[in-house]
Amino acid sequence: MAGSTLEIKNLHVSIEDKEILKGVDLTIKGGEFHAVMGPNGTGKSTLASAIMGHPKYEVTEGSILLDGKDVLEMEVDERARAGLFLAMQYPSEISGVTTSDFLRSSINARRGEGNEISLMNFIKEMDSVLDYLEIDKNMAQRYLNEGFSGGEKKRNEILQLMLLKPEIAILDEIDSGLDIDALRVVSKGINKLRDDNFGCLIITHYQRLLNYITPDYVHVMMQGRIVKSGGPELAKRLESEGYEWIKEELGIEDETVEQKA
Ligand SMILES: Nc1ncnc2c1ncn2[C@@H]1O[C@H](COP(=O)(O)OP(=O)(O)OP(=O)(O)O)[C@@H](O)[C@H]1O
Ligand SMILES: [Mg+2]
Predict the structure, then answer these.
(1) Residue ranges lining ligand 1, Cβ < 6 Å
(2) What share of the chain is helix, strand, coil (3-state, %, to 5)?
(3) CB neighbours of 40 closer than 8 A, spacing ≥ 6?
């Protein structure tokens, strides 16, 4: 079988008893690139966090399966070992842990005990990816994300992605804060991974990224659901026309904002 399949069915997720995701259905197979777009606050990052198992996000209904295995039963580290990867919208700073040490232990956690990568091979691989992504080699010796610029953090997420080689990756606004050259380099890295064994969910606000990384499917998320799916042409239409037409087409009303008296 080529690659893994991540199957999300009727997913409902709440944060502090407020329902954010209201029935998400999405299947990502090895070899497929899916883009998710949608207005601010509609639940895109919540979907990413729920897939990776962030404890704050409570799944109240529905299922997430990876090759038929129940992801919701797995701890966060088990999900990573099973081949899921999340590049976060806001990567965390980890003081006291160098980027290089973090990468090496992440790789080894995935490979499992007794199958650890040798230090020499690790350095060789890391150096070649650092070169590929045009990242300054000194970055590897700095504490993870500490003092990194916005764009450096995003580049670092792709460094992790390329070294960990997950089965299914979720990239949450990997293009935000990137300068034009960085956008090109980051896209080059993601495209390099494209093969039948790699599926990818790309959350983005801008068609611009999709000029570099051509998605097979584009989905629109609104009010906690995927309300429309199509091909790359859908992203182009959103870029030029915004989201109003979808609301009109589907009869979606803007959610009333609770106001304090
Ligand atoms: N940890 C949290 N605590 C409280 N509310 C949260 C938390 N995470 C998300 N929310 C709320 O859930 C809703 C969806 O947030 P989410 O981050 O998923 O949106 P998004 O679609 O990723 O938006 P953006 O495009 O701005 O990144 C928002 O109203 C947000 O305030
Ligand atoms: Mg978000």
Answers:
(1) 15, 20, 38, 40-46, 56, 89
(2) 40, 30, 35
(3) none
Asked if 222 and 39 touch (Cβ cutoff 8 Å), the reply is yes
In the prediction, which pLDDT does 54 show? 95
Structure tokens belonging to residue 78: 């088990």
Ligand 1 atom 9 nearest Cα? 46
CA of 46 to the centre of ligand 1 (A): 6
Helix runs in the chain, H state only: 44-52, 76-81, 99-111, 119-132, 150-164, 180-192, 207-212, 232-241, 244-250
The average pLDDT across 91-118 equals 94
| Atom 18 in ligand 1: residue holding the nearest Cα | 43
Q: What is the pTM (predicted TM-score) of this model?
A: 0.94
pLDDT band of residue 82 (cuts 50, 70, 90) is very high
